[in-house]
Every structure is written in C-alpha cells, then in structure tokens.
Design goal:
Number of strands: 8
Distance between the termini: 24 Å
Helix content: 40-55%
Strand order of the largest sheet: 1-2-3-4-5-6-7-8
CATH superfamily: Metal-dependent hydrolases
C-alpha cells in the first residue's frame, strides 16, 4: 500500500474533535478586532504577534503555552467577535476538507464586558451555522469548564451545556492548567452533565500522569480523553481504555510544543495505534500550534510510517468518536468509508499507470550486473 502525500491527505474527508476557538483565530483577525476595539496588543503586525504567542515554537511547558490565550481572549469579548472567530475557524477547516468539527471554548472567559453566557454560546453557534451554510462543514460546540477556576463555575457551565444540548452543543470538557488541578475537584459538574445525558471529554494525561486520566474516566465519567499522552505509563489503564473503546484526542504538534513529549519520534501515537487504542488526529490550537488537520496527518505519516490503509483507519476513528447520535454517525461512516476507499483505489490506479509509463533504463550487456541474493533461485522457481 502506498504512503499518502500531502495532496492526497488534503482530499480526504476529515474530522477535528479537539480544537479550541480562542487558540485558532487568524492573526489578521486578532489585529483587526484589537484595532476596532481599542485593545492594546504586544505587537502591531502579524510577525510580531506570531512571536508573542509562541506560534509554532516550543514552549517551556503547558502553562507557558497557555499564556498565548491572554492575547486572543483580549479581543473575544463581544458577540460579533465570537461569531466572526467561529465562522472563520470553520471556513479554514472546510478548505482542507474537514467535514465535521467540534469547537471547544469556555464561555466564562468571554464575559469581561458583561455579555450573558447565553448570548456568548449562541453567537458561536450562529457563526458555525453560517459556515455550514456557506461551506458545508458540520460543526458542534463543546463547552469547557476551567481547572484553575473554582469548581462552582464549572457547575454553572455544565448547566449551560445541558441547556443547549441538541441546540448546537454536543459535549462538556475540562480544560486549563492540569498540574495541581485534578478532575475530581469538578466532579459535581460532570455529575450534572451525566444526569442530563450530555457526553464529556476531559484534558488529561498531558501535563500530569495517568492518575489524571483515571480520575477523568472513573470519577468524572469522561467518554473521551483529550491528549492522553501519558496513558502508556499505566498498563492496566491502557488496557481498560482500549477495551472500552474510549477515544484519545491526539494532538501531535501541540504535545511537542508544550513538551508533553520530547519530539515527534517519542510520541506514543504509533504505539497506541498498533496496540488498538482508538486514536484520533486533531489540531488543538490551529493558530498557536501553527497546524492544520492536514499538517497533523502529514506529520503522523512521516513520523510513524502510516500507509493509506492506516490513515483511513485514523480517519474512521475520528468519525466513530464524534459526539453525534448513533444513527447519524453510522450514516456518515458509511459515506466516508466509501469515499475514502474510492480515493485510495483511484490513487493506486494512478500510481500504477505512472509507474507503467516510466521509461525503462536500457541495460548495457557489456556491463557486469550485480546479482540479487536469491534471484537465481526465485527465477528458477518461477
């Protein structure tokens, strides 16, 4: 089976299940919003702003990485800004053939100017709905509680997520600084969403060990795990996650940028995939990490040697793991499976035709030829 290149990956239907709204804005939009709203930024041009948010650069740790959000959040404090950011994120994703995306953010972080939580949520939903109308990309929202903010606020946000279930919101999350802020402190919020049949995912195993993942699953009842990079440190938990088909939202470039792993080669994605964990490929923060979904698949292929069949499995994993109703998910999966299979068959035929048309180098009979080990035996057997 062939190794997919960037052009082929761009053509494939894809998901992005772990992408933060406030970490995925356009540099130009941040500058325009700041200028219109009188917000002072650490730079007045795109190059300077990119440097200020560590765009694509290795950070000291997760906390250093999270400081970039102070800049993006400074311009996301009104309904129009939120609507625009949501629309542009979906538009950018649609351009690389992302078919389904779950956009996460914490409404509580957008209330500095007094906007109501309800209008904050509705503005983002409206922006995503407009993008679906214009570009055909399906999107839902995941509401985030924040680890380092008091648990009572997470409970409040869980109530918002429950109220907007099936109205554009598909899940609840816990994000923010992981170290020293265990998921169990927010168990009441997750108890509420479970009782309202809202699905949940939790950032865990990124800046803290497998105990964080254990709490996310067994205390808070998470249906998916954001990152899960350190799951491999606990064999029993690894087997449980695999057996229960709990998806991991893998964000390769982000994990390198936050130093959750040393480099791409030391990332556990390849091991998880081989072991049978349901791993999915995601961007985390398209702006801060400077990554698209296509970029992440290309990095996965280059680092772990995934062939087209394995890339297809990763794509199927994404659609299987979506917080969508079962029958809707099944319909999409059948369609995506057929589409990806057809694209693979088309590429195999193209490569075969290209190889058949390639000129054969003439052999000079006077030039001694190297014998390939076993060649004579194979020829005799043939």
């Amino acid at each position: 089976m062939f190794t997919p290149d960037r052009a082929f990956i761009e053509r494939l239907p894809k998901t992005d299940l772990h992408v933060h709204l406030d970490g995925s804005m356009r540099l130009s939009t941040i500058l325009e919003l700041a200028d219109a709203r009188g917000v002072k930024l650490p730079a007045t041009d795109e190059a300077g702003l990119a440097k200020a948010i560590h765009m694509g650069e290795i950070c000291q740790d997760l906390n250093d990485y999270l400081r970039a959000f102070d800049i993006t959040l400074s311009v996301l404090q009104d309904e129009e800004a939120l609507r625009r950011a949501a629309y542009e994120l979906a538009e950018d994703a649609a351009r690389e053939n992302v078919r389904y995306m779950e956009v996460r953010y914490s409404p509580i972080l957008h209330t500095r100017k007094g906007a109501a939580l309800t209008r904050i949520v509705e503005s983002v939903i409206e922006g995503l709905a407009d993008a679906r109308r214009d570009h055909g990309i399906a999107c839902n929202v995941i509401i985030c509680g924040i680890r380092h903010i008091e648990p009572q606020q997470s409970l409040r946000l869980a109530e918002v997520a429950s109220a907007y279930k099936n109205k554009g919101v598909c899940g609840f999350d816990l994000a923010g600084a992981e170290y020293d802020y265990p998921p169990k402190q927010h168990r009441e919020a997750f108890y509420l969403v479970r009782n309202n049949n809202v699905r949940s995912t939790i950032h865990a195993g990124e800046a803290y060990g497998p105990e964080s993942i254990h709490q996310a699953i067994h205390v808070c009842g998470a249906h998916r795990i954001g990152h899960g990079t350190r799951l491999r440190e606990d064999g029993e938990l690894l087997n449980y996650v695999t057996d229960q088909r709990i998806p991991l939202e893998v964000c390769l470039s982000s994990n390198v940028q936050t130093r959750a792993v040393r480099d791409f080669q030391s990332h556990p994605l390849g091991f998880y995939f081989d072991f049978g964990v349901r791993v999915t490929i995601n961007t985390d923060n398209r702006l801060i990490t400077n990554a698209t979904v296509t970029d992440e698949y290309v990095r996965a292929v280059e680092t772990f040697g995934f062939d087209a069949t394995q890339v297809k499995q990763l794509i199927i994993n994404g659609f299987k793991s979506a917080f969508l109703p079962f029958h809707e998910r099944q319909t999409i999966l059948r369609r995506v499976n057929q589409e990806v299979s057809a694209l693979i068959e088309e590429e195999v035929a193209r490569l075969a035709a290209t190889n058949a048309e390639a000129p054969v180098k003439a052999v000079d009979p006077a030039t001694p030829q190297k014998k390939t080990p076993g060649a004579t035996k194979a020829a005799t057997a043939a």
